[in-house]
Design goal:
By secondary structure, the chain is an alpha+beta fold. It is built from 12 helices and 15 strands. The chain has 2 domains: about 200 residues, Gcn5-related N-acetyltransferase (GNAT) (Aminopeptidase, 3-Layer(aba) Sandwich), CATH 3.40.630; about 150 residues, 3-Layer(aba) Sandwich (Aminopeptidase), CATH 3.40.630.30. Helix 3 packs antiparallel against helix 9.
């Protein structure tokens, strides 16, 4: 049967398909909090001023069989401004994907490729980050024949994670002597400087006053962290709108998990997490930059992991630390989950121009890497 594609470009229409979205997710074998309708609601609070909604909804007769949550933006690229289709994602997104019923995968992928061809004058580049290795866009699309486009797939990052099944003692035995020695030095230093050291876990808020207090703390620590120069901290209007909406929705969905380190009753470090579907996702780990010499972030990470591996409600879950090669993640991680991206260039004149420019950039990068490697070899 024929697959039809609806392009959702307004919030009103988006809200009208909320039930379809939830019904589709209930029929998928694998899902995460990052695929939920509520997550995208929060993300949109960050993006709505610089992006246009382009959510693709695939129907077979009256049944919603797939959703691809996209936005359209324009970004600088060698002095040009290509129109880029990408996931409705923010810096805190860890995973995104085409949400599709397994029985309809092949038909939906073909319909997606055809839709992109039919609308080729409306976009230049499709750039999809945050894909898991079992995504149909990764496993099937680049290998399908008779398509209108070439689907380029790249492995570009990894998401480190920890299995919370073992006891803390079993897990900690596998960590290096250097890490353990460093932890003891940090603990002794904090004990000498502060009277009280406390790690609290917040997963429920009962009053509006408590909600405001939590938000104020998130914004305060974020605004005084080393990340403030990136303009992604929660004191900026759009990230603030995002974290406010996300926290509100996370409470209603029972996703919320915040770990806070208090020194002499002052909050100095925190990790903001989301829990769901047997997985814990570390979204933000922030600490006061003024406390960097006391390694408060490292101490919180240590004690948080200790509690995650000791408390029965977290048993058998996976804790994802978030993509990136931060040294502290390397010290604690057990596994790496690869993350992929897909690039597709429009068959329009502009799309093909950007394909050529991307090829030149790739050749230049390869040439520089080879020259650098030869230079090192000679030395």
């Amino acid at each position: 049967m024929t697959i039809t594609v609806q392009t959702v470009e307004s919030v009103d229409i988006w809200e009208s398909i909320a039930n379809d979205w939830q019904q589709l997710l209930s029929e998928l074998p694998d899902t995460t909090v990052f695929y939920q309708y509520q997550w995208f609601q929060a993300a949109w609070q960050w993006l709505f001023k610089q992006a246009q909604l382009k959510i693709l909804v695939f129907y077979q007769q009256q049944q919603c069989v797939a959703i691809l949550p996209l936005i359209l933006t324009q970004q600088d690229y060698h002095g040009l401004k290509p129109r880029i289709l990408s996931f409705l994602a923010v810096p805190d997104t860890q995973y995104a994907d085409l949400l599709v019923l397994p029985s309809q995968t092949q038909s939906v992928l073909l319909s997606l490729d055809q839709y992109l061809y039919q609308t080729r004058q409306q976009w230049d580049l499709l750039e999809l980050y945050y894909l898991r290795k079992n995504s149909h866009l990764v496993t099937l699309m680049p290998r399908m024949s008779n398509l209108n486009h070439q689907w380029y797939c790249y492995h570009y990052d990894n998401n480190p994670w920890i299995d919370l099944s073992p006891s803390w003692q079993e897990y900690y035995k596998t960590r290096t002597r250097r890490l353990k020695k460093g932890n003891n030095l940090i603990a002794n230093k904090l004990k000498r400087k502060f009277t009280t050291i406390e790690v609290k876990h917040i997963s429920n808020i009962n009053t509006e006053a408590d909600f405001k207090e939590l938000l104020d703390m998130l914004i305060d620590i974020s605004s005084q962290s080393w990340k403030v120069s990136t303009q992604t901290t929660f004191n900026y209007p759009q990230p603030k709108a995002f974290i406010t909406k996300l926290t509100e929705l996370a409470l209603t969905q029972q996703w919320l998990s915040v770990w806070v380190l208090y020194l002499d009753k002052q909050a100095v470090a925190l990790e903001y997490q989301l829990l769901g579907h047997g997985e814990i996702y570390g979204l933000r780990a922030d600490y006061l930059a003024s406390m960097a010499e006391d390694s408060v972030g490292s101490y919180l990470n240590w004690k948080m992991l200790e509690q995650l591996l000791q408390q029965p409600q977290f048993e058998s879950m996976k804790y994802y630390m978030g993509a990136g090669n931060n040294p502290y993640k390397t010290r604690w991680q057990q596994h790496l989950e690869p993350i992929y991206k897909i690039n597709v260039y429009s068959r329009s004149i502009w799309g093909q121009l950007f394909l050529v420019l991307a090829g030149i950039k790739s050749l230049k990068t390869t040439f520089i890497e080879k020259v650098t490697a030869l230079s090192r070899k000679d030395n």
